[in-house]
Amino acid sequence: MTERIKGVHRAAPLFFGGLTLASVVVLLLSDAAPRLFAANAHRILGALPLALIAAAYLAYEWARRPSAGELVKGALLAIAFLFWAANQYWADSPYATLYNDIAIALFVLDVFFVIAGWPASSPDESFGESYKEGGD
Known about the structure:
Shape: flat
Distance between the termini: 18 Å
Order of helices and strands: HHHH
Structural class: mainly alpha
Number of domains: 1
């Protein structure tokens, strides 16, 4: 298991992560009480958390100083979130479907890399599972 990020290196990922969580609360509030928001606010409110989590994840990856392969893999994931954000923001664009499909392709590629064990320096916990040695 990798060591936790400590001290000042946690500040940027936590800042962007906190902003992301706050933006999700506002997004859900806009769903619960749409009359409180401008008619076109949802496209911005839907895109913002996706763009912010991309920034949070890039800050996290940068702070933990991964291998070059892990950094590339992290960047691909962040780019996938940005294309998803673009799809939300420009939903009426003729390119919206393309943005969505690129996001899907990058998410699928990211999970494939996890399954394939690339990069080799990635811990087994990289997909959210944690395993104990010795079974059980």
